[in-house]
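User: My instructor asked us to take a sequence, write out its structure as tokens, and then describe one feature of it. I'm not sure where to start. Here is the sequence I was given:
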Amino acid sequence: MKRLLVLLFLLVLCISPASGFVLAEFCPDGYAAGDGDEYLILEGSGSLSGWTVFDGEGSLTFPAGAVSSGRVVVARSAEAFFAIHGTLPDYEILESSAVKNVLQTGRFQMANTGDDLSLLHLGEVIQTVSWPGELSSSNGRVHVYTDGVWDDRIYKIGQSRFSPETFTADSVTLFVSPDSSYEAVSGVIREASETLLISMYEFTHADIAREIADAAKRGVDVTLLLEGGPVGGISDEEKGVMDYLAGRGVSILTIESEGSIPARYRYLHAKYLVADGYSTVILSENFKPSGIPLPGTRGNRGWGAVIRDEETAEYFAEVFAADLGGIDMYPYVPGDEPLPAPWSDEKIVPHFAGMTLYDVSITPVISPDTSSLVFDLIRSAHRTVDLQQAYISPYQDGENIWMAAVLGAADRGASIRVMLDGMYYNTADDADNDELAAALNRYGGDVSARLLLPGAHLTKLHNKGMIVDGEHVLISSINWNFNSPNNNREAGVIIHSREAAGYYTAVFSADWNGEYEKDPVSAGLGFDLRLLLAGGIVILLIGIVIRRRR
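Assistant: Let's start with the prediction itself. The structure tokens for your sequence are:
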């Protein structure tokens, strides 16, 4: 009987499909001349015999005996692919002898703006995809098939693909700018004994530069990654910081576009550091005197956290390593700009000291990889959403989906408070923060918005934070526009803790009840618009009564 069962089992194996493949990824519009780096990837294992890729004009099949143990990369030119990606494909269409060739029938080349692909097995169509009908193609854009769906995010050549993870941190120290940020950041730098990994959009803070130089002097291996093309270019002050640190043994690299090859991310806008593989600092603020003010001085409103946990540190160290590994990384060439003079604003009495919590659940958020976690967090809101943003912009092709999700929470009965920056550059245009605040105040339900104005304690609102249902806190560098979550490299964390939510809610409420503008549209007109509207309604009612009497 046992022999019979074994024979039946072997028979089933013989008649079952030996392998299965799926078209998992392709890039029709690469960066190399003539799109020599265009490629496609099949995922699956087993024999490649009988599998064909067809683009309507030509087809690709594999040589006899070809097998796969997971992924098969087919590029138009192996040399062009290597020049862009730094690795060789498994097969190529053109002949360069660098790798094996696929067998081509007809002319197979994916068109940039519109084409289609079909994957066939023994002549049977297994999978098809077309663009622009199903996908939005653009230069350098990679299309990825995951869980039966194409393009759940915008991928570009060379971008990382981190997945969501949640860790339990040993401790988390909460802090805010301007009250307690310098102590928190400098404290981690001073404690470092082995390594410092720093990723920053802008760095002009002379005092923090000296803290880092001191760390390098005592033997800490410091690597600094900066955006090479910030808005307005790298300032002389930042060059002075870079020159100073480079002269003291700090390794400095910039991410930037070069020639026909654009940077992987529109901006490296992240603000974080990892010390000794254990302490991770996440910030909404740049390393600038206004972002991380010296103790007891005025500055931006921003949020931050020091997370002490090996797994969280490892996660962000892997993000850092992935960013360093791109072809858009360039070693900084030092110049002779002087270190900027130390600068601080007016003196203040700090309101919020740092607070340390233990055994805290942490979920990293990385743009563009996992920025959808923010959208999911908003959609989970049922009771409250407190939102502080420097600005919120509509998408070019429509509404801001994150802001729409916040109003969706309001429609479910949640109480919404939105605080935006009131600086002139965020209120000067016809459709920016003041107009949005006014529109939110007209929305109905329990929705209210205010502009934070420069005052005795705060210079501006630069935060990108959110508190949901009094249980979850977002600390991040992610602005609420289209590019920040979709095209920038950003970094943040969601802290799952009522105590953390309580801390930041206290800060939010102090700002909400402090120096703000309740009715920004009225202020711009020079009188209270609500009184005018009320007067108009009264006049209208009087007119109706008189007309009826006639």
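For the description part of your assignment, you could build on this observation: The domain at 19-156 is CATH 2.60.40 (Immunoglobulin-like). Try explaining in your own words what that tells you about the chain.
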